[in-house]
Structures are given as structure tokens and as C-alpha cells.
Amino acid sequence: MIIKPDKPKCHCGIFGIFGSQHASLQTYYGLHALQHRGQEAAGIVSKSFSAKGNSVFNIHKGVGLVTEVFEDKSIFHSLLPGRSAIGHNRYSTTGASKSRKNIQPFVVNYRLGNMAVAHNGNLTNAKQLREELVNDGAIFQTTSDSEVILHLIARSKLTNQIDQIKEALSKVEGAYSLVILTDDKLIATRDPFGFRPLALGKLHNAFVFASETCSFDLISASFIREVDPGELVVINDSTLSNGFPESYKINNIKFPQKHCIFEFIYFSRPDSFIFGHNVDKMRRRLGKVLARKHPVSDRDGEKVIVISVPDSSNTMALGYQTELEKLNINSKLEIGLIRSHYIGRTFILPGQEKREMGVRIKFNTVKGVLQGRTVVLIDDSIVRGTTSKQLVKLIREANPKEIHLRISSPPITHPCYYGMDFPSKEELIANRFNVDINSIKNYLEVDSLEYLTIDEMLEAVSEANAENFCTACFSGKYPSKIDPTLTKEMYEI
Ligand code: SF4
């Protein structure tokens, strides 16, 4: 059995570099820092030259973690030479998407040469576009929405490659952050809503792009700026000489910005800078607002113990406890749960309850910290609630006085169509209990349960302009055209 966290999963992390002697190795490091965005497959495409001076696209990809797919270090100079490369980490759910064919980057050769693409996000009109393309004679190699973009570019009647890409992107809807490698340039672009992050950086003379800036830190690249929603940033040999990336707009249609708020809540690393802000800072603020709106004090006036579900909720717990102190509530931040980082594929003995064992293998309590105390357990979100229930059971065994669960996001009630994967609507705990917090509290067997409301969550990120966020998985208000009568599966290829 593979023990997976009961958390939403993102489909991907992307990285690109142009103008570096060690392009594929640096892409490997970049993907390594983005491993949290996708753990089921990884791939790198580099561009080099043949003996005759023609450009050659080299590919290595496989199923597994970045360190597993690129286990042999000779791959970088023998299989992936060249001064430019792009890479992709993938998370997949369905059988079809586990297919090796769906591992990115995808490479095609069309009338203007070679082109490779790596995509983070999810297109909401891919199914319809694919049907139109198939009816028009297109032959698809994969079952990925990302391949639709390549077909649209290749079929464009325009002659300039940037115009072809702009035309193709004007036809797709939904979420995309893309890096595209061609024979003579590296292009990075974000959808006009800016759902997913994408940053531009510099490493000596080379230019780099990554889903999150933590990738830049690993290779000592400096962050320049984020790619704007609806922008195409182009790096070519001229950029290397003059230091100025070219910038284009996909089109002139004005879209509201709708960044995925879940990137701040759970998905991005706290050491990254996305959507104009440090993730760490936003996560602390979520914890602070949670404390202000839903504080916990000990019934006997003793010290309250604040613990997090590691690692994703650590920063929120910090913010929560700091704010309790400001509210004059005697409290202490403690490490009450220890997480094993080495679970991998684990066997469960017959007769053992899978869920319970799954949580026990992953977490243990520090009993001395919890015994006889009022404990506040901070978690970033609850998806199915199965892990939360087992965690509470585990904490109870340490004999605390009370357990209070505080969630730094609102109840998740709707599917995400923009690249975050939740279980079916029926499986979400909030829907199972009709968003009745008291019933969820009783099911989880905690002394109290509070979530942030949507307004409270937006108050926490107000510095980044609350208007600029997608909150659809909490509110059902989708920023782009979504037909609520269709299931999420009906939108996917
Ligand atoms: Fe993010 Fe939720 Fe919007 Fe999806 S629906 S983009 S997870 S905020």
C-alpha cells in the first residue's frame, strides 16, 4: 500500500533554462526543489546541436521521483547535452494519466522546427478542442490536455512562431503556466487569470523559469520577477547579449487576476515567493487570523499547547500561537507530532485497519508534550477527513485534557478545474455533512472545530488584494466559464 496524504494534489511543477553550460543538470536541481508539486513522474528535454549543426532535442523521462528518474548522473552529459532545457514533475490520478506517454515535456517536430512543452495547470476546454482537432485529422499521441496546445500551434497558418503560440493560447481556456523550448528560444507564459505561479530568474548569463522561486535558491539563481498573467516572455540569443527578455501579450483582452489561493494555503513551499508575496508570510497571516477569529484558551487558565500537522501546517501554527500571545492567552508552540519522512511503499499486516496503520506509520505523538494539556491542532485543510480522524485518535492516546482542531481554510465543497486534484464531491467531508461544522466535529471526535470562513481567509491575504484570488473550491464561484451541470470528469480528456 502506498500511503498518500489526504490532501489536494497539484498536477505539476515546471522549470526552464536558456544559455547555461549545465542546463540539464540545473533543470534536475530545479525539479528537485519542485518535487512537492508532483511525485509520480519527471522528465527533461534539452537542446543541443548535431555534428552538422542542426538542432537536436534530447529527452529523458520516467516514472518516479526526480532522484529515481535521473539516478545515473552520466545522463546529464551523455543523454541531455546542450545549453537550454526544460523539465516537468508530474502528479497523475487516473489510469490513463499514469501512462508513460503522458509524461512531459512533450516534443514535436513541425514545419517551423522542434518544439517541447511543459505545462502546469488544467485546460477547461481541452476536450472540446481535442474533438475538433481529431475531426480535422489530428492524431494525438497522449491523453493529456497539454498536447492540445502543441496541435493548435502546429496547425496555425501564421508564419511567425510567437504569433502561432499567441493564436493557440487565445483558443484555450483554464489554467496554464507553460515553458516552451524551440530551436532558438525559450518561452514562458501564464494564462490571463494567472491561476498558477511562474517566475523568471537569472543565473550568471543564463535565464531561468520555475513554478516557484525555491528552485532558483537551489541553483543560486536570482529572482527577477514573475511572469505576468497573459504574458509571453521570450529568451533567445539576443537576450543573452543584451540582458533584456522580450515580452508579449497573448491578446488584448483584459481578464481579472485569479490566483489559486490554495497555493498559499497548502501547495507552494513556504520558502517560495509567488503572486507578489512570500508564501511563509501569507501562511503566518492565515494562522494569525485563525487565532483572532477562533482562539482557544484552557478552561483552568493553564498554558494552551499549539501543535501543527507537519509539515504543511507548521507556519500557520507559528502564526496562530504568536497571535494567541497577543490576545493574552497563555500558550506555547510545541512539536507534538513527529512525521516519518521514509514511508514510501508500506505493507500492512492482514487484519490491520489500513487507514489507522497509514497514519500510525506516518505520525507519532510526543506524549510528554500533550498529556494533560489543552491541545490546539492546526491543519491547513480537511479533504476527506479520514486522516484527521485517525490523527485525533492518535493524539487522544497521549491523554490530553482537550483537543481543539483549527483549520486555516474554509470547508472544501467544490471540485477544482484548474489543476488541483480533490477527491469526488461526495467524498469531501464538508459535503458528506452538508457543511454542518458541528456534525464534522462530532465525526472527528474533537472538543471543538473551527474553519476560517471565506471572508476571514481573504482578510488574511488582503495585502495581496483579496479580489485577485480564485476561491472556487470553497465557494463554487468559478472565475472562468464552467458548466456546473457537467462533472469534472466530463471536462477532462
Ligand atoms: Fe485553487 Fe481552489 Fe481555485 Fe482550484 S478551485 S484554482 S484549488 S482556489
Short description:
With 493 residues, the protein is of the alpha+beta class. The protein is built from 19 helices and 26 strands. Bound molecules: iron/sulfur cluster.
Structure ligands: iron/sulfur cluster
Q: What is the straight-line distance between the termini? A: 28 Å
Let me know the number of strands: 26
Gyration radius, in Å: 23 Å
Portion in beta strands: 25-35%
Counting DSSP H or I runs of 4 or more residues, the number of helices is: 19
Adjacency order of strands in the biggest sheet: 4-3-5-2-11-10-12
- Average of the residue pLDDT scores: 92
Low-confidence stretches: none
Proportion of helical residues: 25-40%
Shape: elongated
Major β-sheet annotation: 7 strands, antiparallel
Helix-and-strand structural type: alpha+beta
Describe the structure.
This protein is elongated. α10 packs across α11 and α10 crosses α17. The chain has 493 residues and is an alpha+beta fold. The strands form seven sheets. Strands 4-3-5-2-11-10-12 form a seven-stranded antiparallel beta sheet. A six-stranded antiparallel beta sheet has the order 6-7-8-9-13-14. The chain is 30% helix and 25% strand. Bound molecules: iron/sulfur cluster. Iron/sulfur cluster binds next to α9 and α18.
List the helices and strands and how they pair.
Layout: E1 9-10, E2 12-18, H1 23-33, E3 41-49, E4 55-63, H2 66-69, H3 75-78, E5 84-90, E6 106-110, E7 113-120, H4 126-135, H5 146-154, H6 161-171, E8 177-182, E9 185-190, E10 199-203, E11 206-210, H7 214-218, E12 222-226, E13 231-236, H8 237-242, E14 246-249, E15 259-260, H9 261-267, E16 273-274, E17 277-278, H10 279-293, E18 304-308, H11 314-326, E19 331-333, E20 337-339, H12 354-362, E21 363-365, H13 367-370, E22 374-379, H14 386-396, E23 402-407, E24 420-421, H15 429-432, H16 437-444, E25 448-451, H17 454-460, E26 469-470, H18 472-475, H19 488-491
Parallel strand pairs: 15-26, 18-19, 18-22, 22-23, 23-25
Antiparallel strand pairs: 1-24, 2-5, 2-11, 3-4, 3-5, 6-7, 7-8, 8-9, 9-13, 10-11, 10-12, 13-14, 16-17, 20-21
Helix pairs in contact: 4-5, 5-6, 9-10, 10-11, 10-17, 12-14
The structure holds iron/sulfur cluster.
